[in-house]
Amino acid sequence: MFQKLTRRKRKLKKGQAMIETVCVLALHFFLISFMITGFQLMHNKMVYSMAAYEGVRTAIAYNPKSGYNTKAAKARAEEMAKNQIGSNKVTVQINNKGDFFECVVKADVKFLAPIIDPNLKEGLKKNLPVTARFTMRKERP
Amino acid sequence: MNIKQKIKTGQKKRFRRKKGSVLFITLGLCIVSVIFFGFAFDIARIMYFKSYTRNLASAMALSIVNECAFAYHDSVNGARVVIVHDAASKPMTGYKGKYFADRNYVKVLYDKNKDGMDKTYHIDYRNDIVLNPYYISGGNVVNKTDKKRFEVGSDGVNGEVEVHITARVDLFFLQGLFQKHKIIRESAIAQPTAYATKSYQKIRDEQKITFEWWEWKADY
Questions:
Q1: Between the N and C ends of chain B, which has fewer C-beta atoms within 10 Å?
Q2: What pTM, to 2 d.p., does this model score?
Q3: CB of A57 within 8 Å of any CB in chain B?
Q4: What is the CA angle B83-B89-B92, rounded to 5?
Q5: How, if at all, do strands B121-122 and B161-170 pair?
Q6: ipTM over 0.85
Q7: A132: nearest CA in chain B?
């Protein structure tokens, strides 16, 4: 009788360890995915910022034969985003603003785990629009 | 009570004490993980803003060169370029720029690039953006412009412009522990070059940007 009770207790304790492990693992997985997502966001921002810079730098260059080449600028920014992030879902705009060119790189980035918006206004969400832009004075003809 | 019984009793007491210790350890680990994450995330943000500030400085320097550069033929140096920084700059004949390389144009450039700045990124364009600054110890600059560099830069012939930006970044996680803002200092130099062709037509070469680790090569 006594031995049966002890076995039951042991069986119950085995389940407890399993449940604790599952809880701890879930919490750790959440923390790790939160970290990865945060760094993913910063990496995306950095690359799109560089892409916008490269795009506008290419756009302002004046070629005496063909003038300003905004197509090459757009392609340059897209290529950079593609090579660094590996995604084609990036919108690049080259805006002509008088003496200036503006390059805007936009992307709706999907993350590994839901992240908290840096402005803490919209709460948890899966996608975050990342935008980078630079404006530069055109080279003179 | 013999020794065996004593050991058993002691073990039982230890097991009782250990109840819940796993949860405490887990909680501790979680707190450590969150602190580690906060620290690392803020460091990542600082790295991003350093890169952004460098690009912004470079964009401003190139814009100033494109707006305010003036190429002419000097009897001593040959073809050369100077950055026109005020109305008294020489030579002014044929200068096509609307602005001079001064605070007014810095404000124009700042306003043009303002939309691309993060909400947690702060620059006061009046004090934090300095053209051709004087350096003092520790990489700090004096908020005063070395006007000679607009006329003769590091190559000894052409003028150059260095844009030095001091930006403040709000920290998310570290502000309670260390400081509220992180100060970032970055600069970029743009120096145009010119050469005279056989027909004495003055043309300007591609601008050269000098980075610490990266040299621009126009391959398009």
A1: N
A2: 0.80
A3: yes
A4: 90
A5: antiparallel
A6: no
A7: B116
